[in-house]
Specification:
alpha+beta; FAD/NAD(P)-binding domain; 9-stranded mixed sheet; 12 helices; 20 strands; globular
């Protein structure tokens, strides 16, 4: 079979790109290894995803936000930043930035149900699932993609191959894409917790000597227990590698006590916790976001520290930028997989990668040093941030994903077949 575009990976990034391109005169194959209704599907589980305000705009422009919101999202109206044992705090507010929300918290399964429901309505997208990538051959005028689809070999040809197959990208390995990687020696312990005090749509980022600890307001989805509304949080607890097994092994009561000691009582008293999972943390980038006939998006292109919740948002900005570059090439009658087209995408995305990596990595490293003079400087910096509106606005716009070159979708505009970039 021959397509215009083959997307390897039908998770959040890959499915979003297919939807962003649904109105273009292009044929698209979306390849996913794990059925969406399987308990083993890693992309659309019950983990909470922080969506920046800019990402909400992209999803709205794609026509899926209303359906997603109807299934259950939680607005972040306030962000509170502090350091354990320190005196400084910084606060951001949606009202001050004149936006409805600084961001939203959405369960992965809600995102998945919305995206897969919308995909079913796309006449130009063929979903191949379950299908696994076996080999990629890059040719001058296209790519040949060999799959194992439903137990049988199958070969697809396309002008453009998009790698959206996650942190362990098979496409990246197949074409020998160079990456830059740095381990943190940390893992994120993820859980859902409840408190005795309503969250008030406030997100907390609390820095500790072992890493940042985040609490995101996360009301249950529309089909879950409504009694938990206002009392439910998504927890991201960054711990050193040597501490992770111990945290996972604790009884629930012991885990909640440890959490209370680390976080304090700003969010109230912790009452219950879900099962906990841990994910190793790494800073990773492909050296080039695109090469001949191949473009990388989402976790296949980059992995960053979860501090400030920028991971999926960075990937969604990949989607919006690549979709716009492809639309421009279509308008000009150019080859969508030619390096001239893909170079535009790579150049567009590089500043955002570097800015977001510097922002997240800088936070982690700044707060990992416990020298008293540096700790004093950090807390004075938080106090200054809290009292200087221009500094708060700059931080808020970075957190909302509204800094730098914005795509049409992020500006609330429909993707059009246009030569504008």
């Amino acid at each position: 079979m021959t397509y215009d575009i083959v997307i390897i990976g039908g998770g959040m990034a890959g499915a979003s790109l297919a939807l962003a391109l649904k109105d273009l005169p292009l044929s698209i194959a979306l390849v996913e290894a794990v059925p969406y209704d399987s308990a083993a599907q890693p992309a659309f589980d019950a983990r909470a995803i922080a969506l920046a305000a800019g990402s909400q705009r992209i999803l709205h422009s794609m026509g899926v936000w209303e359906a997603m919101a109807a299934r259950g999202v939680t607005a972040i109206e306030h962000i509170h930043v502090s350091e354990r044992g320190g005196f400084g705090t910084a606060r951001l507010a949606a009202a001050e930035e004149r936006v409805t929300a600084l961001g939203y918290v959405v369960e992965g399964r809600v995102i998945g149900a919305t995206l897969t429901g919308a995909l079913a309505q796309c006449s130009n997208v063929e979903l191949l699932c379950p299908a696994e990538l076996a080999a990629v051959q890059v040719e001058e005028d296209g790519v040949a993609v060999q799959l194992q689809h439903a137990g049988a070999p199958r070969t697809l040809r396309a002008r453009l191959l998009v790698a959206a197959d996650g942190g362990r990208s098979t496409v990246r390995e197949q074409i020998g894409a160079r990456t830059w990687e740095l381990g943190y020696g940390q893992a994120a312990v993820i859980a859902t917790v409840t408190t005795d005090r309503p969250h008030g749509n406030t997100a907390y980022e609390r820095f500790t000597d072992t890493g940042p600890l985040a609490l995101l307001p996360c009301d249950p989805a529309a089909d879950a227990d409504p009694e938990l509304s206002g009392l439910r949080w998504s927890l991201v607890w960054t711990a050193r590698d040597a501490q992770v097994d111990g945290l996972l092994a604790l009884r629930d009561e012991e885990f909640l006590q440890r959490l209370q000691q680390r976080f304090g009582y700003r969010a109230g008293r912790f009452l219950r916790t879900s099962e906990r999972q841990a994910y190793p943390l790494v800073l990773r980038f492909v050296r080039e976001a695109a090469s001949a006939r191949v473009a990388f998006i989402g976790n296949a292109a980059h992995a960053i520290h979860p501090v400030a919740g920028q991971g999926f948002n960075l990937g969604l900005r990949d989607v919006a930028a690549l979709a716009q570059v492809i639309a421009g090439a279509v308008a000009r009658g150019e080859d969508i997989g030619h390096m001239t087209t893909l170079r535009d995408y790579a150049r567009w995305r590089r500043p955002d990668y570097l800015r977001t990596a510097a922002f997240t990595d800088g936070l982690v490293r700044t707060y990992s040093n416990n020298l008293p003079p540096l700790k004093l400087a950090r807390n004075l910096g938080l106090l200054a941030l809290d009292t200087l509106p221009p500094a708060r606005h700059l931080l808020a716009w970075q957190a909302m994903g509204l800094a730098g070159h914005q795509s049409r979708l992020a500006c609330g505009l429909k993707l059009q077949v246009t030569s504008d970039k």
